[in-house]
């Protein structure tokens, strides 16, 4: 009787061992595929010009708007007013936080970057139709 119980336990442990090994292999393969997908996604998203977070500031436009407490980035006067106020309030010499001051600076930088990108994409420079040669152009007299 003990012999049969031992055989049942041994067969059960083999089955569980094989199932565990197979599950481990599948998990390893899924993890490897997910890593490849993440790598290809990050490469393609980093090549996009309209990525969510700026490469210089590391902030998304929404984060920058929240930091400066502005809703319209095109209201440059309000953005500048909020920036100057928050930058002064967080001045280290006035007991402020350098970390918060840098966040305010990066938020303003991100908004300026977005405005610059919109300006450059909205008004591309048309190719020159001037057929004059460089020698035809007037040079300043020295």
From TrEMBL:
Q: Which GO terms describe its cellular component?
A: TIM23 mitochondrial import inner membrane translocase complex
Name the principal localization, coarsely classed: mitochondrion
Q: Where is the composition biased (Low complexity)?
A: 32-57, 120-135
Record has Kinase as a keyword: no
Q: How does it sit in the membrane?
A: Peripheral membrane protein
Q: Where is this region: Disordered?
A: 32-58, 111-142
Q: Name one GO biological process term.
A: protein import into mitochondrial matrix
Pfam families assigned to the protein according to its UniProt record, in alphabetical order: Pam16
Where in or outside the cell it occurs: the entry states: Mitochondrion inner membrane
Q: Which UniProt keywords apply?
A: Membrane, Mitochondrion, Mitochondrion inner membrane, Protein transport, Translocation, Transport
**Which InterPro entries does this one have?**
J_dom_sf (IPR036869), Tim16 (IPR005341)
- State whether keyword Membrane applies: yes
UniProt family annotation: Belongs to the TIM16/PAM16 family.
The protein depicted here goes by the name Mitochondrial import inner membrane translocase subunit TIM16
